[in-house]
Write a structure and sequence with these properties.
The complex is a heterodimer of chains A (192) and B (193). Chain A has one helix and ten strands. Chain A is mainly β. Chain A is elongated, with a radius of gyration of 25 Å. Chain B has 193 residues and is mainly beta. In chain B, the strands form three sheets. Chain B has a five-stranded antiparallel sheet, with no helix packed on it. Chain B is elongated, with a radius of gyration of 25 Å. Chain B starts with 19 loop residues before the first helix and ends with a strand. Classes of the chains: A mainly beta (192), B mainly beta (193). Chains A and B meet through helix 1, strand 1, strand 3 and strand 9 of A and helix 1, strand 1, strand 4 and strand 11 of B.
Chain lengths: 192, 193
């Protein structure tokens, strides 16, 4: 395994001799970094980022999934490491709702509004609700928007139970157009 | 952080002078690439995934997992595309929901689905699963696993046919595994909306 050696500025200064040690380090250092030599610098996630700012598309770079039975305004979401435009898809489906305090087994109409909210620095934006704030149903509901985010923005799923007993599965996914984008580099799922 | 500078071929041509500028770049460019410097070239997924995918019983390392929900027929659910050819272990799990009858007696109805793993738009494997209330078959969970030989840009898509008139749908989880302990999540394959 190649060994990493820090090359000093004096070794590449004007008039400095080309030494065997210098050429050896220039040869070995790239390999040592790739092979995770203990003294080599770690490869940053930034080295895996696309060279141009993202535009929205179908390549999934982060997905957060949750199951909920009550109000929750900060349960899970996605953090944005790099500014750009992302496709945000929110999908949900309510499960069976059995009436509380009833022994007849009747099914009550459970309901919730589900959406996501963007946070940027100290600012929080108006939540974007699935189906334009309509009550979600036992049918699968999905919507997507292309949204610009700044570096270090994050989005959180918000769930407002409007009729008991809600049981919901929520899937939050973001995508970009770059087919070289790698999951979890520019956006990462998060829990709160 | 060091700065990346593209070294032109003229700087390292035969008889060209070896300048301090060239030496500085030879030293700095290495670190800058791995630090993800602003002007440095991106490390591409292919550089991280030299090995081909490999399925089989030892393929326990998850390299992609996606979840979706369904309630009606849907041919445009989640899926993934392939960056590196190979054999991938593909698992599809279905959890059916209880389907309450729209009446006051609280009874449940059958719920049934045919969940399909499609390869480039063609059915490759099908998971038929049902809750049969008359036969007290209330097992809501089922799964299939297949080793699939996939080429670059192959598209695996999940489609569902709800085969019960009363079906209330459920949840799906798609998982892709290989046996390579060095495999990285989302490199050999990537999810698509």
């Amino acid at each position: 395994m190649a060994k990493y050696r820090e090359i000093s500025e004096s070794e590449v200064a004007v008039g400095a001799p080309i030494t065997q040690q210098l050429m050896h380090a220039l040869k070995d250092n790239p390999k040592a970094i790739i092979e995770n030599d203990s003294t080599a610098p770690a490869i940053s996630y930034k080295a895996l980022q696309s060279t141009a700012e993202h535009t929205a598309g179908e390549v999934i770079v982060a997905q957060a999934v949750g199951h909920f039975t009550t109000d929750d305004f900060s349960a899970m979401g996605i953090s944005i490491r790099r500014g750009g435009t992302y496709r945000v898809r929110l999908t949900s489906r309510l499960g069976t709702a059995t009436a509380a305090g009833s022994d007849d087994g009747n099914i009550r109409q459970a309901a919730a509004t589900i959406g996501f909210q963007r946070f940027s620095g100290t600012n929080s934006f108006t939540p974007y609700f699935l189906a334009n704030n309509n009550t979600v149903s036992r049918n699968r509901m999905t919507q997507q928007i292309d949204q610009r985010f700044e570096t270090n923005d994050y989005i959180l799923v918000v769930i407002d139970e409007t009729a008991e007993m809600m049981e919901a599965t929520v899937v939050l996914t973001v995508g970009v157009s770059d087919t070289n984008a790698i999951y979890g580099v520019d956006a990462i799922p998060r829990i709160n | 952080m060091t700065t990346y500078r593209d070294i032109p071929d003229s700087e390292i041509a035969v008889n060209s002078a070896l300048s301090q500028t060239t030496m500085q770049s030879l030293k700095d460019n290495i670190d800058t690439v791995f630090e993800g410097g602003e002007l440095a070239p991106q490390i591409l997924p292919a550089a991280l995934a030299r090995a081909t995918g490999s399925g089989g019983s030892g393929a326990t390392n998850i390299i992609l997992q996606l979840t979706d929900v369904f309630s009606t027929d849907d041919s445009t659910l989640m899926g993934f595309k392939v960056r590196v050819q190979g054999t991938y272990r593909v698992n599809l799990e279905v959890r059916l929901a209880d389907s309450p009858r729209q009446s006051s007696d609280g009874a449940l109805e059958d719920n049934a689905v045919a969940a399909k793993i499609q390869k480039n738009g063609v059915d490759a494997h099908t998971l038929n699963h049902a809750i049969d209330v008359d036969n007290a078959n209330n097992n809501t969970f089922a799964e299939i696993t297949h080793d699939m030989v996939l080429a670059v840009n192959d598209h695996i898509n999940i489609a569902v046919d709800v085969t019960s008139n009363h079906g209330d749908g459920g949840n799906l989880t798609l998982t892709v595994c290989v046996d390579d302990d060095d495999a990285m999540y989302g490199v050999n394959v990537y999810g698509v909306l």
